[in-house]
Fold this protein.
Amino acid sequence: MGEWHSSIVMSTSDPLQMLPRPFVVARPLSHLLRKHRYTPALNQVRYLTQADIDDPGMNGGYENPPPQKRQFRDPYADWWDKQERRNFGEPVHEDHDILGMFSPYEYTHFTARKAFFLMGCFITSVFGLCGVVRMNYPDRPSVPRTFEGGLDRELGGKGALLAPSHEEA
């Protein structure tokens, strides 16, 4: 097949030889104390060109309609494309993939304030119900039974391991 290179074969007697070289080399701790100075790259300053002035959107002069999500257009209007709620020849916005009907539905049923209020009401009612149940939960139906001698004979005799009594617990 091929020849084995001598640097590939490592002896396992010295564990430091098994580590890669950067782990084995000891560096003085003084390199951690040095302050690093980062200078900004001044050669990357961008200047406004005539192309940026003529076409600020950088879209080749395309007439971009105002951004309106298709979800919020009137569904009962007389659209040429009823599913997309768009008329024939109407310019499409540059971000049509975000504003179209097949983009994620924007949830407008609750405001954030009302949603947090409802979540707070739910959490309060759950903890309130737990508190009412805890206050009204019945105690034990009877006093725990005790036996004279702790059921020593019934549990195996004098040397048997005794069950802990309620006084010890």
Notes: The chain has five helices and no strands.
